[in-house]
Amino acid sequence: MIVPSTGPWPESITELAPPALLAKLERLDIASRRVFAGKLQGERRSKRRGQSVEFEDFRNYVPGDDLRRIDWNVLARLDRVFIKIFLEEQDLAFHLVLDASASMGAGRGEALKGLFAARMAMALGYIALSKNDRVLASAFTSDGSLRQLEPVRGRRGAEPLASFLLEHARPEPRRAGAHAGGFTGAMRSLALAQRGRGVMVILSDFLVPEGYEEGLKLISGGGGYETWCVQVLAPGELDPAGELEKGSSGGSAGGDGARALVGDMRLTDVETGRSAEVTLTNETIANYRKALERYIAELQGFCRARGISHLLARSDETVERMATSELRRRGLVR
Fold this sequence. Notes:
Helices cover 35% and strands 25% of the residues. By secondary structure, it is of the alpha/beta class. The chain folds into 2 domains: 13-34 and 91-253 and 260-330, von Willebrand factor, type A domain (Rossmann fold), CATH 3.40.50.410; 46-90, no CATH class. α4 (113-130) runs antiparallel to α5. Residues 36-42, 44-53 and 248-260 have low confidence and may be disordered.
């Protein structure tokens, strides 16, 4: 896949997530296979019993109990002292991690991988914010630089989340002399800083020069977060033949500076800077497809073995369909 030197990028929250979409997202909620206890009371039901507005049961009074929790009506009727038990509502820590490395610049126009990831993060973040969950966001680059948004809560947190995504989620070209290992370094930093429990969603192509294994081991090792890996790939990465047809019909492909891939060429890896001479043929494309399918299957298997959920997403997919259909089917939202 050819990575354009420039691409479209939204400039406001309405371009990132239109109001009509946000209205639909408010009906959804972030789901979790586990119930997590948060730092503040929120709208999420916890297994812990505490003080909230939702009554659950009674139990016998024991010395030391809070006298304010005595049910005086029961005492008057039965002459027995019972304590009211309430179901405590807890918040969820929801952490969005975005890949802003050079390879996320692949894709044509609105199908730019980094743009899809930013829009998906905004959608998921808004779902969590509308339910008063704590939302954190991080973005990492090819060299491991990690930028983070302090936790936000409530619908008012949508503006700072959008500002963070607009500024830091855009794919950055690899800097000359920058070392590889960005993914592993970023995951190490996140693992060391991880506090409490919640849900983490990593939006990346996982096309990592040094391999994704060590980084995902670091994230999944603590056990505090339920982790989702949303692997974002561009249509041209999934179907190079389609990229060739678009590129060969009418000169420049899609008007974004990409040229048709034909014959002999020299390709440069945007992440490492390494180059290779390639002769593109039907056989080469067939071998590429097999290698990509194998890579995706290996990532899925690696995630499954460590209790991580994996989801493949095309960058030309609509965020609305992903959120309201595919992610509901997979269980990330409900």
